[in-house]
Amino acid sequence: MKKILTILFAVSLAFGISGCDAVDRIKDSLAIGQESGGEVETVIHEEEISNSISLGVLDYDTFNPLTTESETVREAMQLVYEPLFELDGEMRIIPVLAESYSVSADGRTVTVNLKSGIKWHDGSDFNAYDVAYTIKSIRNGSTTYTDALSDVVDHRITGDYSIEITLRNPVPNFAALLTFPIVQYQTPLTVSSKYTPVGTGPFKFDGKLGTDKMQFSANDEYREGRPAADNAYIVFIPDLDKYHSMFEASEIDVMTSNMVDLTQYMPKGGVSVSKFVTNKLTFLGYNFQNDIFAGSATRIGLSQFIDKDDIISSVLYSHASPVDIPINPSSYLYSYDKTVFNSDEISAMEYLEKDGWSINNSGIYTRNRNNQKQTFDVKLLTNGESVEKVGVANKVAEYFTKFGVEVTVEAVDYDEYLKRIEAKDFDMFIGEIELGSNLDLSPLIKSSWNYFTYQNTDVDTLITQLGMTVDEEEQKLLFDQLADTLMNNMPFVPLYYREGCVLAGSKIKTGIDPSVSSFYRGCEQWSTR
Questions:
Q1: Residue 45's pLDDT band (boundaries 50, 70, 90)?
Q2: Do strands 52-58 and 231-237 pair parallel, antiparallel, or not at all (unpaired)?
Q3: What's the sign of the alpha-carbon dihedral 30, 232, 243, 44?
Q4: For 317-346, how does the pLDDT look when each residue is reduced to its tens digit (9 = 90+)?
Q5: pTM of the predicted model, to two decimals?
Q6: What is the pairing mode between strands 254-256 and 492-504?
Q7: Distance (Å, rounded) from C-alpha 6 to C-alpha 3?
Q8: pLDDT of 359 higher than 90
Q9: Quick one: which of 246, 254, 230 has its CA closest to 46?
Q10: CA angle 37–40–43, rounded 5-degree value
Q11: Cα angle 134-66-243, degrees, rounded to a multiple of 5
């Protein structure tokens, strides 16, 4: 078929690679003459191919996977770009562009060995310079992945296919954080709508089809073999309502839980739903500055009044997984065998009695402490702009009040909610945090998110030890010790991990297999036949 090409060239300034004494190299140009990573607009006029998949994007700004602010663009670019590693359904680290990795005895040096023989879509070779450039760009704060490398203090190329990363301190499962897309050396870090994506993934950019559709063809030289689909189309969609209606009309084939909340949306017939447990943990936080929560027995007792199964079925319509320990239950490191998460009033009362609490004639818990009478009357702060969080707060208050703890729910707007938490102006609060894909609990109990002001040197030591081993059995033992320590102290109450999902229309027959690291994991296997 005839193709009409309109080419716009843009030359970008090259800069050195942080932490490396490597000489600048010049990558091979595309056959049509543009510099790698330059801006090229290609307009093509041809009929759509039947064995194809169609994806929608909202808020399109650029196809640069490092600088785009659009969740849907980041998802779609998983067809084009690849990471060093990905996570499987049990959150094990699987090499993609990497071959292997190792960690030094002190946990502060991670060496990543790369696969050789991989080609970029422009025909040039993938190697360590591309990886170092990507890491430099992220560390410079020029991308949306800065948090993933916040503990990196240096990196350097140690060979054409190896790179060494130096950490400020040992980080548990650090390789699991290397799931961001790798771009070519000297890729412009701009936000340009005319940016031409050049990756190593299963689909490569062809050009525009009209004004609102882009075509990506199967990469015949893909390292895992030619994709099952011949083409992928990306459609620009103006708003979320249109996005939903196009999915329901089978004009796009895939939608993720970034774009739809299954507690509010019911997919129609012919749609398959592939679920996974995300790293979004919802919890009940205590303010340790409030003397009521000073005793661990009190905190443990309160946790046992909560019926987590009831919360998930009634508020989240079963789209979450309850937990008693703050570890993703889909992970290979989760060894907790509890399957029922109902309240246990007897055990809760026994724990409260250990801290001197007893029920008075009015059915309310009171105690004498430091020659003063305390009444268990507290406030529970929540984000009033979230229907889910208000529902969870009301349920928790219902359980506590039923068993003699007076709770008033304070549902405030989100800005006020954040101000109150940062100022420690709360008794308890319903919080949510998305933990890193490496299962590190540090952001919740050691960093700025530790609004409970909880401190425990045993926890700190266990987290450090987790960063010094890659042995699975040793990791399991350390995570078990960490879970036991937290359960015996109960600085916060883990409630549940939210579920994520990919919804696929009837056109896609097989291959949908999302995980924490990627909604579109294994997209080269998506089959329409």
A1: low
A2: parallel
A3: positive
A4: 999 999 999 999 999 999 888 888 999 999
A5: 0.89
A6: antiparallel
A7: 10
A8: yes
A9: 230
A10: 145
A11: 155
Question: Which tens digit of pLDDT belongs to each residue from 83-125?
Answer: 999 999 999 999 999 999 999 999 999 999 999 999 999 999 9
Question: What does the block give as tokens for 112?
Answer: 């990543």
**Which SS3 state, helix, strand or coil, does residue 524 take?**
helix
Q: In what helix (H) or strand (E) does residue 74 lie, and over which residues does it extend?
A: helix 71-76
**E-only strand ranges, 287-436:** 320-322, 358-359, 365-369, 372-375, 377-383, 406-412, 428-434
Distance separating alpha carbons of residues 314 and 309, to the nearest angstrom: 9
> C-alpha angle with apex 432: 273 to 171, nearest 5 degrees?
95
Give residue 142's pLDDT band: very low, low, confident or very high (50, 70, 90): confident
Phi first, then psi: what are they for 244, rounded to 5°?
-65, -45
CA 172 to chain centre: 16
For residue 236, CA distances in Å to 8, 49, 115, 246 come to 21, 18, 34, 11
Angle at 512 between CA 272 and CA 432, to 5 degrees: 85
Cα 422 to Cα 402: distance, rounded to the nearest angstrom: 30
